[in-house]
Amino acid sequence: MSESLLVTLAKQSLETLMWITAPMLIVGMIVGVTISILQVVTSIQDATLAFVPRALAVFMVFLLTLPWAVHKLIAYTTSLFSDFSIYIR
Predict the structure, then answer these.
(1) The pTM is what?
(2) Could you give the CA distance from residue 82 to residue 3 in angstroms, rounded to a whole number?
(3) How far apart are CA 29 and CA 26, in angstroms?
(4) Coil, strand or helix: which one is 89?
(5) If 0-12 CB within 10 Å is exposed, 13-18 middle and 19+ buried, where does residue 40 land?
(6) Torsional sign, CA 17, 23, 28, 34
(7) What is the pLDDT of residue 85?
(8) What pLDDT, in 10s, does the model give residues 13-39?
(9) Is 71 exposed, middle or buried, given 0-12, 13-18 or 19+ CB atoms closer than 10 A?
(10) What letters, b where the CB count within 10 A reaches 16 and e where it falls short, cover 7-22?
(11) 3-class DSSP state for residue 49?
(12) Which residues are CB-neighbours of 9 under 8 A, at least 6 positions away?
């Protein structure tokens, strides 16, 4: 297995990881910033108020994107296991 193949596999793995986690990370960030702005405006500094809505939002996005993420993972895994001859060289 050559170094370029390892770099390519690592790059594809990280790209797949980023595509799958990006929706949850983006929603978590948006909800977190929104809650933080709300806390600054209302002067309510409660850790639970910051955590619970963000966790619920990320969980809801996880449930909504789960079929897409599984399809993406199956496609990536199928492409990895479809031809073993490239790993033997």
Answers:
(1) 0.80
(2) 20
(3) 5
(4) coil
(5) exposed
(6) positive
(7) 78
(8) 999 999 999 999 999 999 999 999 998
(9) exposed
(10) eeeeeeeeebeeebee
(11) helix
(12) 80
